[in-house]
Design a protein that fits this description.
Structural class: alpha+beta
Largest sheet: 5 strands, antiparallel
Distance between the termini: 44 Å
CATH class of the largest domain: Mainly Alpha
Helix content: 40-55%
Order of helices and strands: EEEHEEHHHHHHHHH
Oligomer: single chain
Strand content: 15-25%
Radius of gyration: 18 Å
Strand order of the largest sheet: 3-2-1-4-5
Shape: globular
């Protein structure tokens, strides 16, 4: 198993990239979340990796963070979810936002991601619910509920669901809610401040 690659970024053409490790070029596929974090071509890079072995191919996937790789691996264990859908999910939603969707039962937000249908989204919410605490624990200390407390029904989850219902993309909602200063806000206050921040972009 290849756990990570450290070398020089030789090529990047989403969703594919090549990492030169001591003269050997490793071809990988990666979600857009990882592409956003990549350096310029020719610069040093290190990626967490996951190898998928099939009868007709060996495919290597790269991730900027351990949290992304762990979520990808857990997604592959869900019935009907393969690497293609796993990459689509990580490209369309952050790990933090995905955890919130699952804990709050918000399958509708997942359906908005290209390639994810209603049945797949509902299956993800059901099957991932028992796994997300292990995923979040120690990796995502800033996510409410990731290391213990319940999110369902909490102000953060309610604000998240409301803003997604308003048409905001999950990734954008996560960014806006993270930008709200202080804690202990009500759902309405969270939404108000997040919307003000969105209007001020």
């Amino acid at each position: 198993m290849i756990g990570y690659l450290r070398g020089r970024l030789a090529q990047k053409h989403p969703p594919g990239l090549v990492v030169d490790v001591n003269g050997v070029g490793y071809e990988l596929e990666a979600p857009m979340s990882t592409f956003y974090a990549l350096p310029a071509v020719g610069e040093p890079v290190q990626l967490h990796t996951h190898l998928v072995v099939r009868e007709d191919a060996q495919l290597l996937y790269g991730f900027a963070t351990e949290a992304e790789r762990r979520l990808f691996r857990d997604l592959l264990r869900v019935s009907g979810v393969g690497p293609k859908i796993g990459l689509a999910l990580l490209s369309g939603i952050t790990v933090e936002a995905f955890l919130l969707c699952v804990e709050s039962g918000d399958a509708a937000a997942l359906v908005r991601i290209p390639g994810v249908g209603r049945k797949t989204a509902e299956r993800l919410v059901i099957e991932m619910r028992d796994r997300i605490r292990a995923l979040g624990d120690g990796l995502l200390p800033g996510v409410p509920g990731a290391a213990g407390g319940a999110v369902a029904g909490g102000p953060q989850a309610e604000a998240f669901a409301a803003m997604v219902a308003l048409g905001y993309k999950p990734v954008e909602v996560t960014r806006l809610l993270k930008g709200v200063p202080g804690d202990g806000h009500s759902t309405e206050e969270l939404i108000r401040q997040a919307l003000q921040a969105a209007a001020g972009r």
